[in-house]
Design brief:
Helices cover 38% and strands 18% of the residues. Among the domains are: 67 residues, Arc Repressor Mutant, subunit A, CATH 1.10.10; 93 residues, no CATH class. The strands form 5 sheets. It has a 4-stranded antiparallel beta sheet with strand order 11-12-13-14. A 3-stranded antiparallel beta sheet has the order 1-3-2. The protein contains 15 helices and 14 strands. The protein starts with a helix and ends with a helix.
Length: 361
């Protein structure tokens, strides 16, 4: 049985580099960065990357997206996915089809051809060409029929996001997928990728995180949930596991446990950063409950609208809030601020890095 110290040390070491690298190299290593549109003080993808990319500034990912080897897509959440993973994520099962295969028909075929002729198409141009019909969306509301067609075609790998203009996706035809890979190989590959992102991750969280992917990538009749794939990977020796105070954790077998002490550094983490994403692990490793309260009524908030967990060495000791580049950085502590000059200096340095990051947003 391993200790909480082992858990905390490897959560930090396996996710956060001791020294940042170039954006393209970091994306090639991460292979996925979760996206979220809230800017308080910046979007989640930018806050995640600033802890890993040298001299990163808010908005760099958007500015450089067309030249990077990534697509907007879904892994365990919506975000930016390395193009290398595309053959593992597509094709996806179509819940509207009896045999699970997605075959564009009618208007969808016309939309693909329109985008192909344009090269890159803005949704308003597609809507202007095909009309302003509205249809019921998956949430019970109504959406533009053409926008839904574009997104469904993107979801099934026939279109890709070329870029964004004022935050709006523009689309282009995606390269052909080629012959599909073996479904079992695809499942194992994507579960291993998610396990690497969160390593070491509770088995329960990993199973839930990949549940939607398992359903999308399985043959008709398959059910969501990752436990059968996780058991298979453990049996093959591709995942290792350990129990920490009664909770089972798993991680890719090629990851070597850390033996170095964590750096004496403060980091303000995005609410969706892999270090804090697994809330079960967070509660156990750091002994307090972190909640993302942007959608919590104001009167019920404890930490704040967009509280960023504050990591000191390998301990999450509190949180920081900062509404914008012109706002003050406010910090709160679970059990009081650490004593000594080392922490005070590290906190000042992180506030300075945050301000520099926001300066060109």
């Amino acid at each position: 049985m391993s200790s909480l110290r082992w858990l905390r040390r490897n959560v930090v070491a396996w996710s956060l580099p001791r020294s940042p690298g170039p954006l393209a190299d970091v994306l090639a290593d991460l292979e996925f960065v979760q996206a979220d549109p809230i800017r308080a003080p910046a979007r989640a993808q930018d806050l995640i990357l600033r802890q890993r990319v040298r001299d990163y500034r808010a908005g760099d990912l958007d500015r450089r997206y067309p030249e990077l080897d990534i697509d907007e897509d879904v892994l365990y959440a919506y975000g930016f996915v390395a193009r290398r993973l595309r053959p593992y994520l597509h094709p996806r099962r179509d819940r509207h089809s009896s045999d699970g295969r997605y075959v564009p028909q009618g208007r969808a075929v016309e939309v693909i051809e329109f985008v192909r002729e344009r090269g890159v198409a803005h949704p308003r141009d597609v809507q202007a060409h095909f009309g302003h019909e509205r249809v019921t969306n998956d949430w019970g509301g109504t959406s533009s029929a053409t926008t839904m067609a574009l997104e469904r075609l993107r979801h099934h790998g026939l279109l890709r996001v070329a870029d964004r203009v004022a935050g709006v996706r523009r689309y282009e035809v995606a390269p052909p997928l080629g012959d599909p890979l073996d479904p079992a190989d695809r499942l194992r590959a994507v579960v291993l990728r998610v396990a690497r992102t969160f390593a070491p991750v509770t088995e329960a969280t990993l199973s839930t995180a990949v549940g939607r992917l398992v359903w999308w990538l399985s043959e008709p009749g398959g059910r969501p949930g990752g436990r059968p794939v996780i058991r298979d990977l453990l049996a093959r020796g591709e995942l290792n596991d350990v129990t920490v105070e009664g909770v089972r954790y798993v991680w890719p077998a090629d990851l070597v446990p850390a033996d170095a002490e964590p750096p004496a550094r403060v980091r303000f983490l995005a609410p969706f950063d892999p270090v804090v994403w697994d809330r079960k692990r967070f509660d156990q490793a750091w002994g307090w409950e972190y909640r993302f309260e942007a959608y919590t009524p104001v009167a019920k908030r404890v930490l704040g609208y967009y509280a960023m967990p504050m990591l000191w060495r390998d301990q999450v000791i509190g949180w920081a809030t900062c509404a914008s580049a012109d706002s003050d950085v406010e910090v709160g502590f679970v059990d009081g601020a650490p004593k000594g000059a080392a922490f005070a200096s590290a906190l000042d340095a992180e506030i300075g890095r945050l301000r520099a990051f926001l300066s060109q947003a």
